[in-house]
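QUALITY CONTROL LOG
STEP: pairwise intake check
CHECKER ROLE: data steward
CRITERIA: each record must contain a sequence immediately followed by its structure tokens, with no blank fields

ENTRY 1 OF 2
RESULT FIELD BELOW
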Amino acid sequence: MSRPVIAVVGAGPGVSGSVARRFAREGYDVALLGVDEAQLTELAGQVEALGVDVGHAVTDVTDVEAATAAIQRFGDHTGRIDVLHFNPSAFREKDPLELPVAELLEDVALGVGALLTAVQAARPYLSAGGRVTVTGSMAADKPWHRAASLGVQKAGVRNLVRSLDATLAPDGIRAVSVTVRGTLDKQGPFTPDRVADAIWAAAHQDEADWQAEVPYSG
């Protein structure tokens, strides 16, 4: 039997990179989707050094056709996707009076809409026991007014995860967002590696007591 596979959407050097390495250490092969080729190449090397197979694709995840094609290529190659992790969001320092509607919608297309694209593309490769995980944020509940679109994205993606979980649950597939209630740092409880541990734990909840949102408070 082939190893389990995690596809990481919005892969880079932060939480998403820690998630990729965390699952690789548990024996998952890894597919990486992101926009920065240098970062993807470096992360792919780190993951491969852990003894698993890794593939990566440079893709704008807001490009529905390109993102769908990239995920389908991964799925066709591996024959399965066991975990789909979604990480991207846009940080734009503008308050609600400065933020044009077009920019708000652009940010929501990345931080929320791209999750729809990823899940719809991955669905044929997900089977019972499959999981969709999302990096959430306390900005969903306590937005900083100077980055108004971020709070909208995080509230929206959390809401979408609940709908995805209800839709997928009859097939034994579950979705969960991990709400990080703190600021990422290089030390302490909110390092990317510690958050990745929380995402691993959320993905491996007992299904009988499944929660579609799991807070991580360090």
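ENTRY 2 OF 2
RESULT FIELD BELOW
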Amino acid sequence: MHEKTIFALSSGSLPSGVAIIRVSGPAVADTAEKILGCLPPPRKATFSRFRHPSTGDLLDEGLSIYFPGPNSFTGEDVLELQGHGGKASVEAILTALASIEGLRVAEAGEFSRRAFENNRMDLTELEGLSDLIAAQTEGQRRQALSQSQGVLRALYEGWRSDIIQARALIEAELDFADEDDVPGSVSDQVWSGVLTLINQISDHLDDGRRGELIREGFSIALLGPPNAGKSSLLNALARRDVAIVTPQAGTTRDTIEISMRIGEHLVVITDTAGLRQTDDEIEREGIKRAVQAARHADLVVWLSPSDAPADLPVKLREIPNEQLLTIGTKADLATSQCEIVVSTVYTNGLDVFLRELEDRIDKRLGHGESAALSRQRHRFALNECSNCLRLSIQSKLDLELRSEHLRQAGDHLGRLTGRIDVEDLLDVIFSEFCVGK
């Protein structure tokens, strides 16, 4: 139980039609008496007048809702004041709350942190909530909502429960081997189950980084020779002049990125320097960065001008076919052999190109059919868990050591949900939240 009661604007930037101010902590009932004149009935929207606790001056009027703990977002008593979203009105209420002894302004993510500390949500659910607030696309919304509702928590806690049960059988053999009701070699029963668990975690990890790409954005690199139309295509996709376009070859010297939605997914498209042999030191650096962008991209789009050879550079021939798309450009100047041909002058073929991109992205990312890893910390913890499980099934080791490896595997899963030793993670995780959440 926290000694201080916290408050903050929880509904976003002002001005707005409605502003929601959230108060959480042990002094909620006293705060309601001073601001509203009485404590509203639980979980029922009540019309109220908000008054200054010292002067009695009317500050605003609106709805108040009281959520008694532990059945609230934070697990504590919570009061929400829903008033008008004018800057002056909100500032007046926040100033009035600050004048009440025992209240202070909430820090970023503090409401969510209290929800975690009061066992209302685990870390994976809170990370999902953070992603839900930041979601820009339908794919991000669907994945974040699923995670915030406990899909990953249920999966990881189920695996952890299996490990705890396996350890219990082993400990029984180690500690009570002389008892009649504990048969010898009872631990032999657990190793097939551990192997099954290893395979399940391996399948979960082998997802092509689907969840991370949905969350962070699917990366596409535009590559081609100088004057292939890369910058023109980028401007056409962005529907604004992002990159400089001139007839002079080698205009683009550095990478330029834009973010956009294609279908239901976030996509980051990178324009790069034209690939060619050059003595210009700056242009060579730009070409080096272009090749690096290609190697890190989820999809490389090679622009092949209709009035030039369509040969792919040697440096790009190592890219798998499923990560490479060749399109013809400058369709207004000549006939291209490519299946997809675009002209940014007449905007021909852009719709076909975008549909092809959408199909490829959907094939790679899917539509959120199953729980997906969305953060690197999840992947790291699961890899460590899997490594410990693999050590535990080595029959040449003593049973005590195999049991210890199982314990370590369970601890790695516990760190994912926040059950074990995560103090060093909390500040990082909750810093992603805004004040009021």
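INTAKE CHECK: passed for both entries
DESCRIPTIVE NOTE, ENTRY 2: The radius of gyration is 29 Å.
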